[in-house]
Amino acid sequence: MAKNEQEKQVSAAEVVEEVTAPAVEVKGDTVAVVNPTQYDSEGAALMSVAKDQVNLESAFTDVSNVFFSSIVDDGNPLTKIKIYNAMNFTEGAFKSVNKPIVISDIIAHNITLMDEQTGEMIDAVRVVLVTPEGKGYHAVATGIMTSVQKIVGMFGRAPWQPALVVMPRRVPTRRGFETLTIDVIDVKYIEKPNVIDAEA
Fold this sequence. Notes:
alpha+beta, 5-stranded mixed beta sheet, 4 helices
């Protein structure tokens, strides 16, 4: 099956991460990707090893650039759980929020999506807006990145205290599309930001 038949189109405005696992060849402590679309005359996959081999140890230990989180990791396992869950299990897309939410932190990480218009794979940044309780709302729109940068310039780096009361706003672009931005409509003082109730 051709590669483009294996891949499902993904909207760049939504976060849908689907990984098609290629064949791999393991040699010692390294793993090399094998191109699954090349076959010999009998239909067996050719062992054409990719040039860049991934060291297994560094893949799971050198994670300094995997994501950014403004939630202060104080060493408490509950804080680590908050960071992990906020990034992986969001309440939904920020664009679908229909009432004000309170945010105190942000998490961001790189992803790869398929452009609906061109079919090309593009690099993007997934931003998660995090509430003081640890609930996350994700977005991939460029306008969200720009809004967060402006918010940082105005209110300083997250975590924000007072926390920010925000809503999404759709803004038309010059090319006739829409992008998503953040409206800051109020602030709210939180007694203990970035703390999880152990009994929650």
